[in-house]
Amino acid sequence: MAGSDVITMDRLPIGTGDIVVHRAGDGNPVGYLHGMIGTPPGAPILTALSAADLAVTAPCLPGFTGSDVTADKRSIHDWLFHLSAVVDATGLAGTPLVASSIGAMVALELAAVRPDAFSQLILLAPLGLWDDTEPITDPYATTLSAQRRLLTKDPTVTAMFFDDPEGMTGDELIEYGVARYETRTSAASMVWPIPDHGLSQRIHRITTPVTLLWGAEDEVAPIGYLDRWRQALPNVVATHTIADAGHLIEWDQPDAVARIVAETVGPSGTGTPT
Fold first, then answer.
1. Does the predicted TM-score (pTM) go above 0.85?
2. Which residues make Cβ contacts (< 8 Å) with residue 264, sequence separation at least 6?
3. What residues have CB less than 8 Å from 81, skipping those under 6 apart?
4. Do residues 85 and 14 touch, judged by C-beta distance below 8 A?
5. CA dist., res. 21 & res. 11, Å (int)
6. For every one of its 274 residues, what pLDDT tens digit does the chain have, with 9 covering 90 and above?
7. What is the C-alpha separation between 78 and 84, in angstroms, rounded?
8. Domains contained in the chain, CATH given
């Protein structure tokens, strides 16, 4: 049976502000934590996970996709404590989590200090490691159009974030532009000057089973980082290279990601691989 195609959006008070939470689908529960452009309403990964018989809960971190901007996120540790509160408030504690890019970076930090946070991690091109011989590309040290081309192989798939929707009034366009600016600023604050907050010193504490997905044409984090993560993480159960995908794999290939997630989570919904 295909999952429900209805996507709901609620606001949930967490700490000093409200966050946006999307929910979609019926079936095995799974969380989704966004990458650099947040989770706009109607993001294709929500529909794809729902169609794979998964009940997805997708919170948006502060400053992303309409969640309140808060002044208390000064370091990676502030972000991980916030995420810890989010997984408890949304009922995601102890369930599998799909996490992308910077979202995966924060999820790994939380898993290092709270092993019960997730039953399993399905990570899409996580940031958080750094190698001087193959540095991560900074997508914020360039123009908006160049950033768009860096994040996905097909720049058109992120139109709902980068392009102004048709039919909006002047005030609505201003509000939309402000939300986009806040998302980009929040993401930049997490990876500047480099997305290395010392996770390599804590990575041995991450006992959660991890499945790694990497876009074959990632221009932000070179595909060589897939092997670096595989060697560094204590409990990698599978790795996948996704063809025709850039850094934000779930935007280029949402159906392929959803299929792997469904196979990884397993029929019990407890994070047991099939």
1. yes
2. 96, 120, 122, 211, 238, 273, 274
3. none
4. yes
5. 6
6. 344 568 999 999 998 899 999 999 999 999 999 999 999 989 999 999 999 999 999 999 999 999 999 877 778 999 999 999 999 999 999 999 999 999 999 999 999 999 999 999 999 999 999 999 999 999 999 999 999 999 999 999 999 999 988 888 888 888 889 999 999 999 999 998 889 999 999 999 999 999 999 999 999 999 999 999 999 999 999 999 999 999 999 999 999 999 999 999 976 444 444 3
7. 10
8. 7-265 (3.40.50.1820)
101-113 and 170-191 helices cross at what angle (nearest 10)? 50
Crossing angle (nearest 10°) for helices 254-265 and 44-51: 40
